[in-house]
Amino acid sequence: MTETVIVVALLLVAVAATAAVAVRDPVRQSLILAVLGVVLAVLFTVLQAPDVGLSQLAVGSALTPLLLLLTVRKVKRRGRRAERGRSAGGDGP
Q1: Cα–Cα–Cα angle for 44, 49, 55, nearest 5°?
Q2: Which of 41, 65, 83, 93 has its CA 20 to 30 A from that of 50?
Q3: CA distance 5 to 70
Q4: What is the mean pLDDT of residues 49-71?
């Protein structure tokens, strides 16, 4: 029974990691990265490392995707601002 749960968790990790690499949109990548963090937390818990699982849950599925989403938002906002400056006839920064 335990081996089956470990194999299923490993397969879910492989699928989520592959999906995170295959997706091209940064917003979707960060959401899939959050799912990967949850799946890794489950795997660590199944492998009897609940402390590592809790750390992974906090950092890998909450903090890292949040930072990525905020970064993507800021980069898109800067790109729009620079584009508006060029279209208004300015040289930009």
Answers
A1: 75
A2: 65
A3: 35
A4: 94
